[in-house]
Amino acid sequence: MKKFLTPKKILLAFILCSGIYFIGIPLGFVPFWWIQPNYWEFRKLCKINDLPNSEEKYNKILGYFGLKLGDKYVFLKNTTYKNSIVLRAYTDLKDNNEVFSMDNIANIEFSPSWIVYYPQIFGNEGNMDFRINWKTSVECRYFKRDLLFRSK
């Protein structure tokens, strides 16, 4: 009986897969994002902006900053959520009432960004200045197409 998986074939397959992985990372291809638990949390946060303007949406967004409708206006500072997701929110108030309320909020924009640690190469060929950035930020706009086609 002939063996299908020999040690030589397993070793060649391992070398091929690791070569694809290590060449793909510097070129900007990060495989297996959907395996990371932070990916699913980040997707859930990105879908909050798509909700209609209502009390539920405003309370969800303000809740990440420790506030709710009816609280006094404070500038919303960037907040770290789950160690690798940075939350930002921008608010426009209609009056100088300085209270978060349904009638007073003209616009609220929620902007989470996910910090992913993989190498990204930047550089200028003219002066041969190449740099590697290990801390890359992924924003909701990168997943907009994915969210549109798989809405459930």
Physical arrangement of strands within the biggest beta sheet: 1-2-5-6
What is the quaternary state of this protein? Answer: single chain
Tally of DSSP β-strands: 6
Overall form? elongated
**Helix/strand structural class:** alpha+beta
Q: Summarize the biggest pleated sheet.
A: 4 strands, antiparallel
Using the CA coordinates, give the radius of gyration: 22 Å
Number of helices, where a helix is a run of at least 4 consecutive DSSP H or I residues: 4
The percentage helix is 25-40%
Distance between the termini: 49 Å
Mean pLDDT: 78
**Proportion in β-strands:** 25-35%
Low-pLDDT stretches: none
| SSE run | HHHEEEEEEH
Helix-strand blueprint:
Blueprint: H1 7-24, H2 37-46, H3 55-63, E1 79-81, E2 85-87, E3 89-93, E4 105-110, E5 113-124, E6 129-139, H4 144-149
What does this structure look like?
- The mean pLDDT is 78.
- This protein has a 4-stranded antiparallel β-sheet with strand order 1-2-5-6.
- Strand 1 (79-81) and strand 2 form a beta hairpin.
- The N and C termini lie far apart (49 Å).
- It has helices at 7-24, 37-46, 55-63, 144-149; strands spanning 79-81, 85-87, 89-93, 105-110, 113-124, 129-139.
- The longest helix has 18 residues, at 7-24.
- It is 28% helix and 26% strand.
- It has 152 residues and is an alpha+beta fold.
Give structural attributes:
about 150 residues, alpha+beta, single chain, elongated, two-stranded antiparallel ribbon
Short description:
The chain is an alpha+beta fold and about 150 residues long. The protein has helices at about 5-25, 35-45, 55-65, 145-150; strands at about 80, 85, 90-95, 105-110, 115-125, 130-140.
